[in-house]
TrEMBL record:
Biological source species: Streptomyces althioticus subsp. attaecolombicae
Transmembrane regions: 179-201, 213-236, 273-294, 306-328, 349-369, 389-406
GO biological process per UniProt: proteolysis
Subcellular location per the Swiss-Prot or TrEMBL entry: Membrane
Region described as Disordered: spans on this chain: 1-171
Superkingdom, natural source: Bacteria
PANTHER family (UniProt xref): MEMBRANE-ASSOCIATED ZINC METALLOPROTEASE M50B (PTHR39188), STAGE IV SPORULATION PROTEIN FB (PTHR39188:SF3)
UniProt-recorded name of the protein: Site-2 protease family protein
Biased composition (Basic and acidic residues): 13-22, 75-87, 111-120, 131-148, 161-170
Length: 550
C-alpha cells in the first residue's frame, strides 16, 4: 500500500506506484474545476488490503461512527456485504444531516454489556457471571465491510469526541475507591437487602421473639454486614490482580453478590489459578473468624445470631464459588489447570465453560429436590407449597446466571483468540497530505487522483498537525468547496491520536481507549505518515471477529 512520507513523497522501497501518494500525484487543473467527490478505488488498489469504498455525494451524510464495543446494532448495519475485504455499498442520499459519531470508547450500554472491552475478566461473588453479550453471529468472515462508507469516516461535525464511559456516572452508587479501584453499589442491591431483611428478620423473630419489630433492624444490619464480606471477597481478587499488574476497572455489588472487573487476562495459568482462588479463600477465612467470635458469645443472643448467620453465609459463598465451572471461581481454577496441562488457554475455557453449563442444569434440578427432601437442613415436605415454589425460582435464577456466564466466557475467549486480527496496518485508510490553506475541492481532487480516503493537514515542513473531518466535509455544499480551506474543517492531532502502524489486538484497542477520537493518524516507526485509522473501521472489524467461528 502506498503511503505518503513527511512531505507527501512515496516512501523508499514502496512497491506501489507514485500516483497513490499525495499532492505531487495530482492531475492538472485548478481548484475551481476540481471534482467534489472521491472516486471508487480502481482494481489496482485492491492489492493493498486496506479498507476502501465508494464516496458519498456532495451533500451525503457522514456515516455514524461506532466503536468496537458498540457491537449490538453494528451487526445488522455493517456485517452484510460482498465479503471481499473491501468496503463497498451504496452512496448515502443527499441533503441528510451528518450524525454524531462515536469512538471505540463510546460503549453505551454494551458494557456494560460488555461493557467491558474484549479483554475484561470478571470475578463475581457468589455467582461469578458475565452479563449477556448480544453479539452478532451472522456477519461474514473477512475484513470489515463499509456499506455506505465515505472517504474519511468521521463522527461529529463539531469534532468533539464523546465522553469516555469511565467518566460517566454508571454502575450505581459510588461508595469509595479502596486501592484506587471504584466500588459501586448497583440498584439491585437494595432489592436484595430488602429480601434478606424480610427473610432473616422472620428467622430472628422466631429465635428472639422478645425483640419484636427490632428483629428487622438486626436483619438489615446482617444484610449490610454480609455484603461487606462479599466486598472483602472481591477485594481479594482485586489485590491479586493489582499484584500481577492487571488493571481493575471497578468493583460492583449487585443482586447476587459482587463482581471485580479485571481488564486483562492473567499471563500464566499459575497466576490465573491464584487470581481465582484468593476470593473463596478469604470467604473461608471470614467464616472461620465469625466462628471464633461465635464461641465467645451466647448463641441465643443478638451477636450470636448475627455471627452464626455471617459464618454460614460466608461458608456458602466459599463453597459455591469453588464449584468447578465457569463463571465461578472454581471454573477459573479448572480453566487454569487445563491450560497448564494443554498449554492452550482456549482449551481450558471450553472445558470449564461446559462444566459450568452442566453445573447449571444440576442446580436447576438438584437444588429444589435437595430442599424438598430435607437434605439441606429443613424439614422434608411432601406437597408443593410456597417455599417449594420459591426454591424452584431461586434455582432457576442461579442456573440461568451460571449458564449465561459460561456462554459469555466462551464468547470472550473466542474474541481474544481473534483479537490479533485487528491490525492498525490493515485497517488504515490511505491518506493525502495537504496544506492548511488548500481549497477543499482541490484537496478532494488530489485524494481522488491518489485513490485515498483521508486528508492529513501538514505544515510547510511536511509535518502533520491536524486531520480533516469527514463529517465536516460532507457538511460543505459543493458550490462552496473551492472557497473553503481544509484547515477550517480539521481537528488538531493530539499526542494520543498518533498510533503506530504496528499496533494490533488488545494493544490497539488500549491505545484507542486512552485517547477517544473518531480518527487517528497512523505513523511508521520512522515518523512517516502511514494513513488515517477510523474508529468505525476498527468497530466493524471487531464485529467480524465476534461473529467469526473459532
Amino acid at each position: 500500500m502506498d503511503v505518503s512520507g513527511g512531505r507527501g513523497q512515496p516512501r523508499p522501497g514502496n512497491d506501489e506506484s507514485a500516483d497513490h501518494t499525495g499532492p505531487e500525484a495530482q492531475a492538472p487543473g485548478g481548484a475551481g474545476d476540481a471534482p467534489t467527490t472521491l472516486s471508487a478505488p480502481t482494481p489496482a488498489d485492491d492489492t493493498d488490503g486496506r479498507p476502501e469504498g465508494p464516496t458519498p455525494g456532495p451533500d451525503a451524510p457522514a456515516p455514524e461512527g461506532r466503536t468496537p464495543q458498540d457491537t449490538g446494532a453494528a451487526a445488522d448495519h455493517d456485517a452484510h456485504g460482498p465479503g471481499h475485504g473491501r468496503p463497498e455499498g451504496p452512496t448515502p442520499g443527499p441533503d441528510a444531516p451528518a450524525p454524531e459519531g462515536r469512538t471505540p470508547q463510546d460503549t453505551g450500554a454494551a458494557a456494560d454489556h460488555d461493557a467491558h472491552g474484549p479483554g475484561h475478566d470478571r470475578h463475581r461473588t457468589p455467582a461469578h457471571t458475565e452479563p449477556p453479550v448480544d453479539r452478532p453471529s451472522h456477519a461474514p468472515a473477512g475484513r470489515p465491510e463499509h456499506p455506505g462508507h465515505s472517504f474519511a469516516h468521521s463522527g461529529s461535525g463539531k469534532g468533539q469526541p464523546p465522553e469516555r464511559p469511565e467518566e460517566r456516572k454508571r454502575g450505581g452508587l459510588l461508595m469509595g475507591r479502596p486501592f484506587g479501584v471504584p466500588v459501586y453499589v448497583a440498584p439491585s442491591w437494595f432489592l436484595v437487602a430488602v429480601l434478606i431483611t424480610w427473610v432473616f428478620g422472620g428467622q430472628i423473630d422466631r429465635v428472639l421473639p422478645e425483640l419484636g419489630a427490632a428483629s428487622y433492624l438486626v436483619s438489615l444490619f446482617f444484610a449490610v454486614a454480609f455484603y461487606a464480606s462479599v466486598l472483602v471477597h472481591e477485594l481479594a481478587h482485586t489485590l491479586a490482580a493489582l499484584r500481577f499488574k492487571l488493571p481493575v476497572r471497578r468493583i460492583q455489588l449487585q443482586f447476587f453478590g459482587g463482581v471485580s472487573e479485571i481488564e486483562k487476562e492473567a499471563e500464566t495459568p499459575g497466576r490465573e489459578f491464584v487470581l481465582a482462588f484468593v476470593g473463596p479463600l478469604l470467604s473461608l477465612v471470614l467464616a472461620g473468624l465469625f466462628y471464633l467470635g461465635l464461641l465467645a458469645v451466647e448463641p441465643s443472643s443478638v451477636p450470636g445470631v448475627l455471627l452464626a448467620g455471617l459464618m454460614v453465609s460466608n461458608l456458602i459463598v466459599a463453597v459455591f464459588n469453588l464449584l468447578p465451572g465457569l463463571p465461578l471461581d472454581g471454573g477459573r481454577m479448572l480453566r487454569a489447570v487445563v491450560w497448564a496441562i494443554t498449554g492452550k488457554p482456549m482449551t481450558g475455557t471450553v472445558a470449564a465453560a461446559w462444566v459450568g453449563r452442566a453445573l447449571a442444569i444440576c442446580v436447576l434440578i438438584g437444588l429444589p429436590l435437595l430442599t424438598q427432601s430435607g437434605a439441606l437442613g429443613s424439614d422434608a415436605v411432601d406437597n408443593v407449597g410456597m417455599d417449594t415454589v420459591l426454591d424452584a425460582l431461586l434455582a432457576a435464577i442461579l442456573a440461568a446466571i451460571i449458564w449465561t456466564g459460561a456462554g459469555n466466557s466462551l464468547r470472550m475467549a473466542r474474541l481474544r483468540e481473534h483479537l490479533p486480527e485487528l491490525r492498525a496496518r490493515t485497517l488504515t485508510r490511505r491518506a493525502v497530505p495537504v496544506e492548511n490553506d488548500t481549497p477543499l475541492s482541490e484537496a478532494l481532487r488530489r485524494a481522488n487522483a491518489a485513490g485515498a480516503r483521508a486528508l492529513v493537514v501538514v505544515d510547510a515542513e511536511g509535518r502533520p498537525f491536524s486531520l480533516v473531518r469527514e463529517a465536516a466535509i460532507v457538511g460543505v455544499p459543493e458550490h462552496r468547496r473551492p472557497w473553503v480551506p481544509v484547515g477550517t474543517l480539521a481537528q488538531d492531532i493530539t499526542e494520543g491520536m498518533r498510533v503506530s502502524a504496528e499496533l494490533a489486538g488488545e494493544e490497539l484497542l488500549d491505545a484507542l481507549r486512552s485517547a477517544p477520537a473518531t480518527e487517528y493518524l497512523v505513523v511508521e516507526e520512522t515518523g512517516e505518515i502511514y494513513g488515517v485509522l477510523s474508529a468505525a473501521d476498527v468497530e466493524r472489524a471487531f464485529v467480524k471477529a465476534m461473529a467469526r467461528p473459532s
